[in-house]
Design goal:
The complex is a heterotrimer of chains A (287), B (156) and C (784). Helices cover 34% and strands 21% of the residues of chain A. Chain A has 287 residues and is an alpha+beta fold. Chain A has a domain of 111 residues: Enolase-like, domain 1 (2-Layer Sandwich). The chains are: A alpha+beta (287), B alpha+beta (156), C alpha+beta (784).
């Protein structure tokens, strides 16, 4: 195979513009590669050229501002968990990034890949970003858009990889957050269901702000609006798991080889309890 | 343009399709068969190599991505003829069975113990989430690891 | 030779560890070279169809393609008991994944592309995907031509979709069940398949040279590969030569011939060496799994706890071809019909064809689920008659002089003292309850019987001039360590040298005599016995030479520490090297050969029909106990403790046995709790890789506490029994019984995944549908 050909098969642009040109030319964007490299196992053909994004420095940056954490799309789970550890309100992100998959995959898989992998129903970072009200920046040849992540996920199901997701912005608001996963074994597998919760309480420990996102239960992660509504204004000590048990109708759970639909719902209240317990622990650490 | 990288301390070039997995290139083209092809999905750890000192899943890494990187395989661990401490502990405890998972175990644990010299059993088990073994049932592997720093929890 | 027991027992470290740790070991998958061609199979993607048309011309013309093989190249049928199995689907596809053609090309990518380009046209046929479907009246026949198949072993009734039937009838069960003083307990059980997942998939390289096929393969049974390859290719056995390097796991999957014939044919057609390796997806989807099974069992028990009658019907799913299940129908008698004294017993076991991937042998085979069913049933009996489960077992386990299901007479009291040993060490306080964290607690104690798979083995021992010895057998090192440890230990002890001086030749069918294969605990026993016999010949020759030299009689001489000495006078005599060098000039190089086969334990005449083994020569017993905590919401089962006593005869290498116990129990935990295979409407496995097939990881296991029980009678060398297989036998039983105790619900299906346990706790897991096994035992029989 001569080297002129191989150049065209694996492009390594150093800026976003060049990456977009390559994508317009039909090349598949590759971040960590852990999803793309399994294409043949999914029955997808994999003869397109790769455009590796790893040479674009801006995509690797994590910038901590007073109001935002800006995360480049190529930041790995491992690096993100390390960084976010110092930001107490982002506990959901730290935990999600720190317990996904396995240690070696966490060093390679990226936040951009977690969001953009098409058909990936069990992402861990996405519900955390939903609960934290993250926005994503998407570059296309003509424009740059900043969209709330929920909207981006919705829109993405309707169009084919329009543009390149470059940055994730996570607002830093007062509060605590946590992530919990339900597995069949102890670790090392995709979750059957997962939950991220963000809570802000007032001085009397009354819930002022609450956002709960649920992943892996349906094809895409989404917010648990009925539970949020029920918890708003309640004391934090209220039995959220108990309340959750009556509000499972928000979901149409998916059936899969791994677990039946009803089981995904069954484990949700327990996950709420776990997430809230973690938030309790985190609040105590503050005190 | 070929992919140029350091492989077990030596400068090497790969002129094939850069989308080829590093694992396939190592086994097929560089004939370093110590890195094992077991699951092809990133779950088992048998294909782990060190990229710039850090264990990564070589079956899911396109070789184009290691341009300029420092790659170490199991063959590059320790000196010829000498086992590193993790390998030596496994030999001393006589834990190897079929052997296919052990290169990956060595790659994970050699790195893990650098940053965590006195782990608990649970910490070792967490470190091994991405290393599956079908033969040994794990606990004797953990015993060997725990013996490395005379931890009270280790036992022969 | 009792003093041999002192020298033979040691924790000899395994000599292959270093290379394995450094990644230097060359397994079959690692063998390569630029001259090698690569093979890929074209596999059917339908479960049941007539092949209307195959056209390989376009594929043959593709880049890099050297040859394509199809059914015409492999006319022979093979099998166990019946020859029903072609290696290619010729006219008929019987399972999803069945090979239709094999392609050899310069690269694997090219081979796969060409395989995909072969034109295959199917006419769909009805498929029976479950045993219930297969046994329904007017079910489509998987083998419409079953009557014309060659019978390789007489005795099994067959018919329709029943590939083989084995029965046991001893005593009058009708009378037993009709008694007024009995409680009748009846249960049904249903279990799924288990995939071995050896880390090295099935793999082979083959060459055709000097008119013979040279096959280098990852197998447990080189002589089986030799024979089956020859048979399906229609050539003499002597035309096939098999060699085996280190094998990266087998667990029974590699006990059968698999990819070798395809590579052999392609090697002949191309004139090149051909490498063929299953992808992990192929390995998962066409695994020769531990079979799924359906069981109905009932027992008549007096209030004192005597089992006066037991009847059971077991359906074993063969998949599309009979394979190992035909043979394994024999083992119901010794497992489901084992453990306990039975006043009367009737067992019917049917191996049933379905249009699914063929099943095979996996570590303790049907013993694992038969023990699960039996022990669960036993606990149900105890609950019904109000008897303590351990007391019931103590009363009823077979002991010295008791007869088994087929009337064989057991020797020695083994199970009872083992049970006592465990319960004395770990007294039972309670079997159920609730833990402080709200989880449900359960504990159970179970017993099990398995066997050592004896049969032909051959060995030659060459004594070398430097005082080393070479052991030549067809044994293969698959990971358990027997070839690295037990065998050199046995040879060394018999020759008075250190095991490090025993060279163990890797398997080569041109060098060693016939061997049934590695597995079934037989390596230590059968190959060990053959090796001992070979050593005996070497000793005789060696001592004969020395006796003459020293003018003394051979029975006054001993081999010890590398020397031949006069008994009682250490330091006398001379070194083995000197004798060998002397002998080579006077009588020639010293070697000995030995053989072993099944001695043939006797059963009661007329009890067993369709059995390959009427009575087991070397039973192996086990007692397993575990405690569990069950989460009532998530259904997770955590094992809090796992203890066992294993009957080993003599522990040749206790540390190696520890490794087998820890590993075998963990495989059993996977079988019991996490490893599930489901088959979809295409007749294909849903679990195609490690994402969906869940094996235990490090965090899912715990250290197994064990005691080795020595001294039970065994015809194995030095009284040993194989130890590698039996650790898995009782695991599903122990966990199943403990979970039943914890939840207060009857566990009657495996695996006990969290969703299934959650449903069980909720009362939403009804007993498995078992309408296809008649409650009247005789109505299940196939009459040939």
């Amino acid at each position: 195979m001569d080297s002129a050909n191989t150049d065209a098969l694996f492009l390594r642009p150093t800026d976003i513009k060049a990456a977009l040109v390559a994508m317009d030319g039909g090349a598949v964007p590759v971040a960590g590669g852990t999803w793309v490299m399994r294409a043949s196992l999914r029955g997808d053909s994999n003869d397109q050229a790769f455009v590796s994004l790893s040479q674009i420095d801006a995509l690797h940056e994590v910038a901590e501002g007073e109001d935002f954490l800006r995360i480049g799309a190529l930041v790995t789970h491992d690096h993100l968990a390390d960084f976010a550890r110092n930001l107490p309100e982002l506990g959901a992100l730290t935990q999600a990034a720190g317990m996904s998959a396995n240690p070696a995959i966490r060093r390679t898989a990226t936040i951009g890949g977690n969001i953009c992998a098409r058909g990936f129903t069990a992402a861990d970072l996405v519900p955390a970003l939903l609960a934290l009200n993250a926005t994503v920046e998407v570059h296309s040849s003509s424009r740059q858009d900043t969209t709330p992540i929920a909207e981006y996920l919705q829109a993405r199901t309707q169009r084919r990889a329009a543009g390149l997701l470059t940055t994730i912005s996570v607002p830093r608001k007062r509060g605590h957050s946590a992530h919990a996963r339900a597995l069949l074994r102890k670790a090392g597998e995709y979750p059957i269901a997962n939950i991220s919760a963000f809570i802000d309480m007032d001085a009397n420990n009354t819930i002022k702000t609450v956002r709960i996102a649920v992943g892996a239960v349906e094809a895409m992660p989404k917010r648990w609006h009925s539970l949020e509504k029920a918890l708003l204004g309640q004391p934090f000590s209220a039995d959220a798991a108990d309340m959750a048990r009556d509000l499972l109708d928000d979901f149409t759970p998916r059936d899969s080889v791994d677990a039946p639909d009803w089981y995904r719902l069954r484990v949700l209240p327990g996950l709420v309890r776990q997430a809230f317990a973690s938030i309790t622990d985190q609040s105590r650490e503050d005190a | 343009m070929a992919v140029t990288f350091t492989l077990n301390g030596q400068q090497r070039r790969y002129s094939g399709d850069p989308r080829t997995s590093l694992m396939d290139a190592l086994r097929r083209d560089f004939r370093l068969t110590g890195t094992k092809d077991v699951c092809g999905e990133g779950f088992c750890g048998a294909c782990l190599v060190h990229i710039d000192g850090v264990p990564k899943v070589s079956c899911l890494l396109p070789i184009g991505a290691v341009e300029g990187a420092d790659v170490t395989t199991i063959e590059g661990v320790g000196d010829l003829g000498t086992l590193n401490p993790v390998q030596q502990a496994f030999e001393d405890f006589d834990v190897v069975q079929c052997g296919m998972c052990f290169p990956g175990m060595v790659m994970t644990l050699s790195h893990f113990l650098q940053d965590n010299p006195r782990p608990s059993r649970d910490e070792v088990k967490s470190a091994l989430v991405g290393n599956i073994c079908r033969c040994t049932g794990y606990e004797r592997i953990i015993d060997a690891v725990m013996s490395l720093h005379n931890s009270a929890e280790g036992r022969k | 030779m009792n003093d041999l027991k002192e020298t033979v027992v040691m924790n000899l470290p395994r000599r292959d560890a270093r290379d394995k740790l450094q990644g230097r070991t060359k397994y079959t998958v690692d063998v390569g070279g630029l001259e090698m061609l690569h093979a890929a199979l074209r596999r059917a993607d339908v479960a049941s169809a007539k092949i209307r048309h195959i056209d390989v011309r376009a594929a043959l013309a593709m880049p890099g393609v050297h040859a394509i093989a199809t059914a015409a190249d492999a006319p022979g049928l093979h099998g166990l008991g019946i020859a029903d199995h072609p290696i290619f689907a010729g006219e008929t596809v019987r399972y999803h994944g069945e090979p239709i053609a094999a392609v050899a090309a310069d690269t694997l990518t090219q081979a796969r592309a060409a395989a995909a380009a072969i034109v295959v046209e199917y006419d769909d046929l009805p498929a029976v995907l479950t045993m219930a479907d297969a046994l329904a009246p007017d079910a489509a026949l998987v083998h419409p031509d079953w009557r014309n198949y060659e019978i390789l072993f007489e005795g099994g009734a067959r018919g329709g979709n029943v590939a083989w039937q084995a029965t046991v009838e001893r005593g009058d069960t009708d009378a037993a069940f009709a008694r007024e003083d009995v409680t009748i307990v009846e249960n049904v059980y249903q279990v799924g398949r288990q995939n071995h997942v050896p880390f090295e998939p099935r793999a082979v390289t083959a060459a055709f040279e000097d008119g013979r096929y040279h096959i280098h393969t990852s197998t447990q049974a080189p002589w089986t590969v030799k024979h089956v390859t020859a048979r399906v290719l229609g050539v003499p056995d002597s035309a096939v030569h098999v060699t085996v390097p280190a094998v990266g796991g087998g667990f029974g999957l590699k006990f059968d011939c698999s990819l070798e014939p395809y590579a052999a044919i392609l090697a002949r057609k191309t004139g090149r060496t051909v490498s063929q390796v299953n992808s992990r997806k192929e390995e998962m989807m066409t695994c020769l799994c531990r079979e799924n099974a359906d069981i109905r069992i009932r027992s008549a028990v007096t209030k004192d706890g005597d089992i006066v009658g037991r009847e059971a019907t077991v359906l074993m799913d063969c998949g599309a071809y009979g394979g190992e299940q035909v043979f394994l129908t024999t083992m119901t008698a010794h497992t489901l019909g084992g453990n306990y004294k039975l006043g009367s017993v009737r067992l019917c076991t049917k191996a049933v064809y379905t249009n699914t991937p063929p099943n095979g042998a996996f570590r303790a085979c049907n013993g694992v689920y038969n023990t699960f069913a039996l022990e669960r049933h036993t606990d149900e009996i105890c609950a019904a008659i109000g008897m303590d489960p351990v007391a019931f077992r103590r009363r009823n386990v077979v002991g010295d002089g008791d007869i088994g299901a087929t009337g064989q007479v057991f020797r020695g009291n083994v199970l009872e003292p083992m049970l006592d040993q465990l319960t004395a060490k770990y007294p039972v306080e309670r079997r159920s309850g609730t833990l402080p964290d709200g989880r449900l607690y359960g504990r159970a104690t179970t017993v099990g019987t398995w066997f050592i798979f004896v049969g032909p083995s051959a060995a030659t021992v060459n004594l070398n001039a430097d005082g080393s010895a070479t052991l030549v057998t067809a044994g293969v090192e698959i990971g358990s360590g027997t070839m690295m440890q037990s065998l050199p230990q046995i040879v060394a002890a018999n020759l008075g040298i250190h095991p490090d001086k025993v060279i163990v030749k890797t398997a080569d069918t041109d060098a060693a005599g016939r061997d049934l294969g590695v597995g079934g605990g037989r390596t230590t026993v059968s190959i060990g016995a053959a090796s001992e016999a070979a050593c005996a010949q070497v000793r005789d020759k060696l001592l004969g030479v020395v006796a003459e030299l020293l003018q003394t009689s051979a029975d006054k001489l001993v081999l010890s520490g590398g020397r031949v000495e006069i008994q009682g006078r250490p330091g006398s005599g001379t070194t083995i090297e000197k004798i060998v060098q002397q002998a080579e000039t006077s009588i020639g190089p010293l070697s000995g050969s030995g053989a072993f086969t099944a001695p043939g334990e006797r059963s009661m005449p007329g009890c067993a029909a369709g059995h390959f083994i009427d009575a087991i020569d070397i039973p192996v017993f086990a007692v397993h106990d575990c405690e569990v905590a069950v989460d009532p919401v998530t259904g997770h089962v955590e094992i809090l403790s796992y203890r066992l006593v294993q009957d080993v005869g003599l522990a040749l290498n206790p540390r190696a046995i520890h490794g087998q116990i820890q590993g075998g129990v963990v495989q059993g935990i996977g079988y019991a709790l996490t490893e599930e295979i489901t088959i979809n409407s295409d007749g294909a496995f849903d679990q195609t890789g490690f994402e969906t097939y869940r094996m235990p990881l490090a965090g899912d296991v715990l250290p197994i506490e064990f005691d080795l029980y020595e001294g039970a009678p065994s015809i194995g060398p030095l009284g040993t029994k194989g130890a590698g297989e039996v650790p898995i036998l009782n695991v599903a039983a122990a966990i199943g019984c403990a979970v039943s105790n914890a939840t207060g619900k009857s566990v009657n299906a495996l695996p006990m995944t969290p969703p299934r346990v959650a449903a069980l706790i909720d009362g939403k897991a009804p007993a498995p549908e078992m309408g296809h096994i008649d409650t009247v035992w005789v109505k299940n029989l196939v009459r040939s």
